[in-house]
Amino acid sequence: MITIYLQKNWVLGRDSGLKQWLIGWRICFVSIVLLFFTVSGLCTAQDQEPPYGYDKGVWVLIEKKPDVEAETDWDSGLYYNQHVSLSGSTVRGGYSWKDGDDPEDCKGEVWGTITWDELPGILQPGAKQHTTITAEAGGSQSCSARHPGACSHLELNEESLEPHPCIYYSSGEPKPDPETVTVSWEAPWGKIGDTLTVTVWNRVSGSIRAHVYYIYSYQANAPAVLPYSFEEEKPQRWGNEKTPSLEPTTKPVSCEMEYFGADSGVRVSGVTGQVDIRPCNDEDAWRGVGLKSVIYVGDIIRTGEGSSVILSFPNMCTFVMKPESEISIDNPPKDSKMGLINGKILVNIKKMFQDGSMQVQMSQAVAGIKGTIIVCEETGTSSTLKVLEGSAYFRSMATGEERLANTGEMMIATIDGLSQPQPFDIESEEASWEDYLPETRATVGSDMGTNDNIPLVSLGVNYSGEAISEPKNGKTWPFKLTLIGPDTDGSISGQIEWTSLNSIHQIEGFKTATGITFTETAYIKKGGAVLNCRYNLNYDGDSLTGTYGDEDSCDDRDYGTISMNPE
Q1: CA dihedral 345, 346, 349, 351 (to 10 degrees)
Q2: Distance between CA atoms of 400 and 364, rounded to whole angstroms?
Q3: Which tens digits make up the pLDDT trace of 371-390?
Q4: If we measure between CA atoms, which residue out of 222, 233, 228 comes closest to residue 127?
């Protein structure tokens, strides 16, 4: 019995030890697996060991090289101003055309723009990259049509990556919306000394090619100072430097101004066709202008054939430039000043702050205005002022004489002095501006676009504000908003930038009886913000307040309150 008892006890002891060993082994195995995946998730590509035959290292940007050629071989009599410009990560090109030398012949211009996310100075092998590319094209004509285009794609060592945006259409048809795509890719592993070329392949109207090569070198470690500096880049232009019709007929603009080079606060709130800008001290630095362009004191802006632009001043003045016009900006902090070099502009100052003023400098006279709407025209030998609403003074540069013009009166200044105020047809003048004002209105003088006494939403005004989430315990997101419109059907468009989320979204909506409503429809720059949020805002003086989101709105189902004020 004793022997049996001992044997049974040994067997029981052996089984118990085996169970304990199995349990311990399982715990150890699970711990090792969890540790592996945890460490793998924390490791970057730089921490990982490279595949067999490759070295541990990073790709360092050593050169950013453009490969651009404008299409200048066409018939210079019928096709002209073929040009391509590169500024940072934006390529813009275009050309003007005409069917003949008769003034009644068809004419116009086309353009294309490609914008992409700037590539990083350091690439980690195996790490995911997401590059957003936007293509946009447009054109205008008196009759007939041409074909604007803009196409782009990324290449990794000459291997094409998908997707890629491409727009090509007849300028006689409605302009298509910009096309935006995001390309996901990763840099390969390499050996020390290898070279990697990432190409942004571009073709825009007016160009044979407009590529940009980002050339990287594989190095063991990232240097303290990168060999290539984005800050030292300067805008470049290829092709015909100037359109003959845009040559200024007045003397060159002086750059001797107190605030030269400072941010003027002037912004673009609407642009059609080819509009260029340059600093007054560099005649070769013309570049395309867009809604995000910063305009500095001393900058010169010009519009091409069939093109126009709407400029907004900080004191809520609004300028509309007709085709083939050229102005200079001299805008100190309080007062607003600009020079009309050539062409024709409409100035709306009805909403100017009470302590502000506006001056328009022309070759033969200076117009001084406040709380009014005027038209100024410059030929180089004569300067014309027309008052559509209110009053304005006109001072001769030749004689120093100053006269006042009231609603419906015009004056002309030459080297001989000022003419007497004389009547002009206000309705005909207003009608000539209808194609360049993006809002519905009975006349130019009816507050530049107010209907049924609804305040103007966007013309010349950028907004800043914040959205406050209810389900996220009052989380606040600041934003900046640029609106364009309303159009003749009451629609509005523009963009909203979420500054803390590194996101810029396209917006579309319409004007309501008490305010505006809009929805975020597409990425301009993809960041931490979501799409498809709907916003409903009502006027509160100059401000707009309201709500955003509901169960059918916002990709993350967020909702809350929103408010914004004009900047």
Answers
A1: -120
A2: 10
A3: 678 899 988 788 999 998 88
A4: 222
Mean pLDDT value across the chain: 77
Q: Which H/E stretch holds residue 399?
A: none
Residue pair 109/305 in contact (Cβ under 8 Å)? The answer is: yes
Calculate the CA 426 to chain-centre distance. Answer: 35
Task: Please tell me the distance from the alpha carbon of residue 2 to that of residue 287, in angstroms, as a whole number.
Answer: 103
Higher pLDDT: 125 or 536? It is: 125
214-235 per-residue burial string, b: 16 or more CB within 10 A, e: under 16: bbbbbbeeeeeeeeeeeeeeeb
Bridge partners of residue 479, in order along the sequence: 465, 498
Rounded Cα distance, 465 and 518, in Å: 15
Bridge-partner residues for 462, per DSSP?
482
Integer CA distances (angstroms), 542 to 81, 454, 467, 560, in order: 43, 12, 18, 21
Q: How far apart are CA 462 and CA 480, in angstroms?
A: 8
Q: Give residue-wise pLDDT tens across range 222-280.
A: 998 889 988 778 778 787 643 333 233 334 445 666 667 777 777 777 777 788 888 88
The answer, yes or no, to whether residue 529 has pLDDT greater than 50, is: yes
Q: How would DSSP label each residue in 510-566?
A: EE-SSEEEEEEEEEEE-SS--S--EEEEEEETTEEEEEE--TTSSTT---EEEEEEE
pLDDT digits (tens, 9 = 90+) for 421-434: 899 998 888 888 87
What is the rounded CA–CA span in Å between residue 206 and residue 70? 6
Those residues with Cβ within 8 angstroms of residue 197's Cβ, 6 or more apart along the chain or in another chain = 155, 157, 158, 213, 214, 215, 216
Q: What value does the mean pLDDT take over residues 318-332?
A: 82
Q: Where are the alpha helices (DSSP H) in 131-187?
A: none
Residue range 470-485: average pLDDT? 82
| 159 phi/psi in degrees, rounded to 5 | -95, 120
Type of residue found at 392: A
What the block records as the tokens of 284 is 């070769």
Residue 31 neighbours by CB under 8 Å, 6+ apart = none
Instruction: For residue 77, name the pLDDT band (cuts at 50, 70, 90).
Output: low
pTM for the whole thing? Answer: 0.42
417 beta partners:
414
Measuring CA to CA, which residue among 195, 218, 223, 224 is closest to residue 56? Answer: 218
Burial 150-188 (b: 16+ CB within 10 A, else e): bbbbbbbeeeebeebbebebebeeeeeebbbbebeeebb
List Cα–Cα distances, 195 to 39, 106, 218, 223, 251, in angstroms: 30, 50, 6, 16, 51
Report residue 540 as tokens. Answer: 């509160």
Whats the size of the chain, residue-wise?
567
Cβ atoms of 340 and 319 closer than 8 Å: no
Residue with tokens 């001072």: 395
Residue 187 in tokens: 């840099």
**Dihedral (Cα; 317, 322, 327, 332), 10-degree rounding:** 10
Q: Encoding tokens for residue 383? A: 């300067």
Distance CA 380, CA 374 (A): 19
